[in-house]
Amino acid sequence: MIIRTAAEADFAALAELWAECGLTRAWNDPLQDMAFALQGPASTILVGEGQGSIIASVMAGHDGHRGVLYYLAVKPAHQGQGLGRAMHEAAVQWLRARGVWKINLMVRSENEKVRGFYEGLGYAPNAVISFGKRIDA
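The structure corresponding to this sequence follows.
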């Protein structure tokens, strides 16, 4: 697998990957997320290519001191081969290069498989409650 920065030409394939992996929600436009992530220096999307197509991704960003990961995905046919770990490490390196020293991420509480994946990478639940509020029209 080759890991590189995503480009606008990758958006359709990324949206398909994220949907296939169950990461999209009706109220959240993945194409808007992609465009927003690639427009500034504080965030990026990395893609993993294998056999001429996108088979993995991760979105990384930071607020100046804490990093956040989103959309870490591996096509189901390629899961269990270490590609998720490789994408995670690429995102960690991207954040480290920008002086970030801590990563936060959110996993839906019912997603036991993904919770186990992150626990295997050394993550632990934080004793916090995540609040959210939509501020778009």
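DSSP finds four helices and five strands in the chain.
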